Amino acid sequence: MITETSKYIQESQKCQRNWNLNKNIPNKDLDLIIEAVTNCPTRQNINFYNVQAITNRDLIEKIHEHTAYFKIDPDVDVSEYSKLISQKSDIKKSDKNWVLKTNPQVLGHLLLAFSANEETYYRDAIDDKWDKDVWLSIGMAAGYAQLISTQLGYASGCCGCYNDQINLLLNKKIRLLVGIGIPDENRHYTEHHYEPDFRFPSFKSVKKLLPVKVDWYNENN
């Protein structure tokens, strides 16, 4: 039986690639998403990261232009990618010319740009642990943002593939981008926002092939 909460979990794992930009997210929902991002658990409640909340459409479009890192072999049908991966085929070892695709998940109504909080009080003392905590905290914040956004009726998508121009645009060394917004309900979520003929592979079969192993330790062992 799929509960309402379970549905939100399943939906929040999808990476939305197209948006209905004719609609707007109410400020109260934006505020709740930011509350989730800034109040999620971190080690000893220390703020290891900062986040820039971007709704400026011109800036979001400029950021999108610098996300062209998704490589597609023009001789391989995209629908076959998950099958090739499930067969453990190394599709990236090729002499073919790659076609680069931008990551339109960043084109949502709200774009969250995460960076490290360089002023964390004990960074200089234990820098290696600091960097680990930065990544863990950003991951937790992104997860909170995506789950809460899904419960509010929105879609989302993470992006870690971009060039250094984004750092210049935002004047920060960005570690993760998360796009959140109203999905285009007339299109499949994997369709590129600007290229409707192109669908990103979702690799669903990989999760079936290599499921997360859960070992229970209870009163019986």
Structure description:
The chain is of the alpha+beta class and 221 residues long. It has one domain: NADH Oxidase (3-Layer(aba) Sandwich). It is 33% helix and 14% strand. The protein contains seven helices and six strands, in the order ααβαβαββαβαβα. The chain has helices at 4-12, 27-38, 57-64, 81-86, 127-151, 165-170, 204-209; strands spanning 49-54, 70-72, 99-101, 110-116, 155-159, 174-181. It has a four-stranded antiparallel sheet. A two-stranded antiparallel ribbon has the order 2-3. Helix 1 (4-12) packs across helix 5 and helix 2 runs antiparallel to helix 5. The chain is globular and about 50 Å long.
Give structural attributes:
alpha+beta; 221 residues; two-stranded antiparallel ribbon; globular; 6 strands; NADH Oxidase; four-stranded antiparallel beta sheet
Radius of gyration over alpha carbons?
A: 19 Å
Average pLDDT, all residues: 86
Topology as a string of helices (H) and strands (E): HHEHEHEEHEHEH
Oligomer, anyone? single chain
Give the strand line-up of the largest sheet.
1-4-6-5
Query: DSSP helix count?
Result: 7
Main pleated sheet: 4 strands, antiparallel
CATH class bucket = Alpha Beta
**CATH-defined superfamily:** NADH Oxidase
Structural class comes to alpha+beta
Backbone shape: globular
Cα(first) to Cα(last) distance is 28 Å
Low-confidence stretches: none
| Helical residues, percent | 25-40%
CATH topology: NADH Oxidase
CATH structural architecture: 3-Layer(aba) Sandwich
Total count of domains: 1
What is the β-strand count? Answer: 6
Strand content: 5-15%
